Amino acid sequence: MKEQPKRLWIIFVILGSLLIFSLIASVFFISGNENLGYNTAVIPIQGEITTDGGSSIFNDYASSTDLVQEIEKAKNDPNVKAIIFEINSPGGSPVATDEISEEIKSLKADNITTVAWIREEGASGAYWIASSTNHIVADRMSIVGSIGVYGSYLEYSGLLKDYNVTYERLVSGEYKDTGTPYRPLSSAEEALLQDKLDKLHGYFIEAVAENRNMSVDSVTKLATGEIFLGSEAKDNGLIDELGGKTEAQKYIESKLNITVTSKDFTQKKSFIESLMQAMNKNSFYIGQGISSGLVKDTGVKITT
Amino acid sequence: MDTAQFWKRTFSFIIDLVIIDLVIFYPFNGVFANFFNINIGSENIPSSIYFIVFIISLLAWLYFTFFEYYLGQSPGQMLTKIRVISIKDVKGKSESLNFWQALLRNCFILPFFPFYILWIMEPFYLAFYKERFLERLSVTRTVSDSLGSTGGLKGFKLEKVK
């Protein structure tokens, strides 16, 4: 029976040796990969751009909070020499757009080359972000441009009137409930909101003009809110090149004299996290639908 | 000595794969996670993956070889009470495997040509002839473990079997 401990000892030695060898080999590969692996980060910008609405399994949102973190992560990674922004977005919140745009522009100080690769659409705020990069590539059929701002909303005071429902206006501050859907805008309020939209439009035009080295006048001519096909956008100078991922990589390779190997820098979310996020969001909207309908007016949502 | 039953062999192999997954494959998880994040092909990435797969399969090969050489059983075989014997001296006696026999009978684990042909060949051979093709080549058999847990330990000759 003395053999039993010997057998256990042999099992332990064999398994231990294999485990140690595996650990050493994996550490060797991981450390080797740091240098051999990637030199370009890929950061997707998909869906409506918001400040905090991360993507879930049901909806696609590009959260500026997440995107800024991803850009920071790429910026602090010594391997990353370039970033490709894979854009497929109709735009969104001006503030979120500006946050992302400023973060991208800050990469220039770190000598990180940035390329926007527009796929289906890079419109409005998404185009603003794209314009912050060094180079914009889009397919000839991509939707680009839409340089404009809107704050349209449904006003259903007529419907309420039909149902004999009245809006009791109780405000302190003349413009506090501007944009409520329960009464028509006064001309003063309309002028006020239009002024805000025009200012945002002006910021948009200035940003694009500065980012693309174009004159404000030439951008203003294009800033009618019109969407352009990729081929049209190339002709009017809104993008640099027609193409796709290959062209984006080639630009980086020619500029930096490297062979592009890219790594996805998207913050990975587990299935449970995605599910929880979706449930939280849906619960929030259901709650918001009930409570805001009773208590709080949502006001005008401004979108670039 | 009875040839090991098919289900026992299958079950022992599954147990061994689980152990291999934990001991050998698991430490490489980080490496694979890094590689799978890299999404634009470059020449050095596939070759690196190929090399890692080679290392992992080599370690898995050594896992079976060492256990069968030193103990006559892998952990999966211990749990299912089957063992590997050499039948070079078949007249009444069996003996422990030598290293080359253990190495040869387990080379099916290598995921490279021509070894992966054995992935298809071995199950069919086992189904028709009650032994694997590599067992025939290596002159070994997998049998029911009627000798208890100490049989087959290196340096201990197996007892006479009927």
Structure summarized in a few sentences:
The complex is a heterodimer of chains A (304) and B (162). Chain A is of the alpha/beta class. Chain A contains ten helices and ten strands.
Would you mind describing this structure in some detail?
The complex is a heterodimer of chains A (304) and B (162). By secondary structure, chain A is of the alpha/beta class. Chain A has two domains: 39-146 and 226-281, 2-enoyl-CoA Hydratase, Chain A, domain 1 (Alpha-Beta Complex), CATH 3.90.226.10; 147-223, no CATH class. In chain A, 48% of the residues lie in helices and 15% in strands. Chain A contains ten helices and ten strands. Chain A has helices spanning 3-36, 64-75, 94-106, 125-131, 157-162, 187-212, 216-222, 230-235, 245-256, 271-294, and strands at residues 40-46, 48-50, 61-63, 82-89, 113-123, 135-138, 143-145, 227-229, 241-242, 262-264. The longest helix of chain A has 34 residues, at 3-36. Chain B has one domain (6-144). In chain B, 54% of the residues lie in helices and 6% in strands. Chain B has a two-stranded antiparallel sheet with strand order 1-2. The longest helix of chain B has 27 residues, at 44-70. Residues 155-162 of chain B have low confidence and may be disordered. The A-B interface holds A 1, 3-4, 6-7, 10-11, 14-15, 18-19, 21-23, 25-26, 29-30, 32-33, 36-38, 40, 42, 245, 249, 259-264 and B 19, 23-31, 34-35, 37-40, 42, 44-45, 48, 52, 55-56, 59, 62-63, 66-67, 70-71, 75, 149-150, 153, 156.
Overall residue-averaged pLDDT value of chain B: 79
User: Would you give the CATH topology of the largest domain in chain A?
Assistant: 2-enoyl-CoA Hydratase, Chain A, domain 1
- Which pair of protein chains has the largest interface, and what are the residue counts? A-B, 33 and 35 residues
Class based on secondary structure composition and strand pairing of chain A:
alpha/beta
Beta percentage of chain B is: 5-15%
CATH superfamily of the largest domain in chain A: 2-enoyl-CoA Hydratase, Chain A, domain 1
Distance between the termini of chain A: 80 Å
CATH architecture tag of the largest domain in chain A: Alpha-Beta Complex
Whole-number total of structural domains of chain B: 1
Strand content of chain A: 15-25%
Specify the overall morphology of chain A.
flat
Oligomer: heterodimer
The number of domains of chain A is 2
One letter per element, helices H and strands E, the order of chain A comes to HEEEHEHEHEEHHHEHEHEH
